[in-house]
Structure prediction request, 486 residues.
Amino acid sequence: MRSVRARAALGATVVVALALAVAGLAVLLVLRANLTDQAGLQAEVAAREVAGQLALDVPYDELKTGDEEDHPVQVTDEEGRVVAVSKDLEAISGTGTDRVTPVPQPSPRGDRNGDDGGDGDGDDDDDDVTGSADPARGEVSTDDPDFTNGTATVDGDRADYRFASVEATDSAGLTLTVHAGAPLAAEQRAVASVRGAMLTGLPVVLLVVAGVTWLVTRRALRPVEGIRREMAAITASEDLSRRVPEPGSHDEIARLARTTNETLTALEASVERQRRFVADASHELRNPIASLRTQLEVGAAHPELLDVPGAVADTVRLQALAADLLLLARLDAGERPGTARLDLGALVHEEVSQRTGDRIPVTVSVPEGGGFEVTGSRGQLARVIGNLLDNAERHARTAVAVAVRGERGGVVVEVTDDGDGVPGAERERIFERFVRLDDARTRDEGGAGLGLAIARDVAVRHGGRLTVTDAGERGARFALWLPDAR
Prediction:
């Protein structure tokens, strides 16, 4: 199932189905419990009515049990023998005994009630039955009855019942248990009806949920499909100037569209920068290669005319340019700076000491005591210092100075010259690749315009920065800030 809409619809349907199943089961259980409790209450009332008659010593065969079909009654004695049942009761279960035939009782109970005659007159016996004040009267237990479920067959009809068991004691002290039942047919019909309604309505509800979820998800994902189509078109046409449509909403899809367009903008800029880099690199490489080839061809034809120093100079320039291009390629590929700790003051002294052929001497100012440690690549940071010194030598008139100092949790290296300086509008542009402000200078004298670009890239990748400001009334001051290793 590859469609998000299908998975969302299926997931919502499954969740709703489980929720409805749990809720429906809970409703059925509560409904059944309530109806069962009602049936138990009815059975308890019927049982207490019969128990009250037993407490008044009403003969077993004269007990009034009410509607036999609604309330079947079974009376047992202390030994579990059946002493009385309701009329037309043919079978019973769930009351402790399934007997429905009363056992004859050889007790004087009938004599006390006038069944076999006696010494007293009938009026006195009637007064005893009707409940005149007599300390020998029986009683009905006030304890909560016991409830059980069972079946009973009354006049050929078998049904389920809820039985309540109530104890009664007659005037002779005989404890009898009355089992009276209430039918569970109403409870069963109600539960079956509700269950049927749920089973009938559940598929309809699930179909509605699935359909609504499908439509809502389809509508919500419509902008995503638009983004996908536009991205496919951009991939096919390779036109990075195109942008995906941004919906007017402020939801996750709108943010996705905006982020996608920002990514396309960055990708377009990166590709354009790469194209310019390749074009400029090809242009810069072409001149020394062409010059070197010309000198070699002339030397091959006329050995006496071979300009060996010129060929060596072109080769050195070509080698330096190739090294710069290789370093830029590594930086663009995300090469991480080293993790070595090095003293920036010592590195400056080392780089200046190796510059024996500079036309202007370099003045170095590094406070004694050191403490200017940074973390990074020694080779790359040495390249930065060398490029800054090359740039100062190229533009200075009489002086080039290097100073190292600590500043705000970092180390600053300042390279100052007394040249013409950098105009304020061009102070960011000079850090772009292949950019040179002195267009009148020949390429052999001015370089390829990669030194400052490399210096800033290395500084940024070491967590630092490289800026340029005025150096007083004349000249430029390049400041390299790197975080302190501590």
Observations:
- The chain is about 50% helix and 20% strand.
- The two ends are 56 Å apart (CA to CA).
- Confidence is low (pLDDT under 50) at residues 108-135, 439-444.
- Residues 295 and 425 are 41 Å apart (CA to CA).
